[in-house]
Design goal:
Strand content: 5-15%
Number of helices: 11
Distance between the termini: 48 Å
Shape: globular
CATH class of the largest domain: Alpha Beta
CATH superfamily of the largest domain: HAD superfamily/HAD-like
Number of domains: 2
Radius of gyration: 21 Å
Bound molecules: 2-acetamido-2-deoxy-beta-D-glucopyranose
Helix content: 40-55%
Amino acid sequence: MCFKKVILLLSILPFALCQDISDPSPFPRPLIIEYAEINGARLGDCLSVEVQLKCTSWRVAVEANNLSPWARIPEDCADYVKEYMVGKGYELDLQRVSNESENYARSASLSGDGKDAWIFDIDETLLSNLPYYEEHGYGLEIFDSTKFDQWVEMGTAPAVESSLKLYNAVLSLGIKAFLLTGRSERHRNITVHNLLKSGFQDWNKLILRSTEDHGKTATKYKSEKRDELIKDGYRLLGNSGDQWSDLLGSSTANRAFKVPNPMYYIP
Ligand SMILES: *[C@@H]1O[C@H](CO)[C@@H](O)[C@H](O)[C@H]1NC(C)=O
Ligand SMILES: *[C@@H]1O[C@H](CO)[C@@H](O)[C@H](O)[C@H]1NC(C)=O
């Protein structure tokens, strides 16, 4: 009972404090600073309830693929997306999809003939480009492939920790991991290096875009690559990706798991 009350208090606290910041007789400063630390947000980052609701509605539409295509996040939602990404929201959503994926993998009936497979996308699925997007408005800026390539070539993208946990669970079940990425073949070495450094190993195959794949939509390119895996006799149990173009098309897996990403859209 007592526990419930604490939760309730915490959940209304942000709104209460946000509204009181503009109050002529605000809370003593230390209390506000304490809240800012708890929530991981800077002082003054408080968003109005209306903006919170509007941008949550926008994000749900994005995650459900009801709102596509789109080129950049709405200007009004810049602070909202930032708070979601660096606060607890993104992390919780990542954990939830990872947990559900793992539950499914553990419950699936496996043949054990080495042909059970799971597909993983790389960017924003296994590796996080959040350090890059922190410098580029969390999706507010139009995508710049030259700058992004420079970031990729540093090979320092950290693991999405919840995905690393799922990845290792999938492998431990004897399921083969196929990494299917929109990254170019010319980034093979740096991508391998980055994956290993971030803790990923023992994938069955890393598939990148070759020259003949350039110009295709991700949906088409990835479908063709999955078609080939099916032709090779693999059974695609699961597919994890942050874009719907990772998950839709032909030769879809038994279960698709949409990893959250409100920062960009790839057709
Ligand atoms: C995911 O699973 C872990 C470990 O079982 C648990 O600690 C965590 O709370 C779960 N997260 C969510 C969001 O379900
Ligand atoms: C990639 O690595 C392989 C093996 O380490 C090496 O033979 C090859 O030259 C490298 N390719 C590039 C483009 O750096």
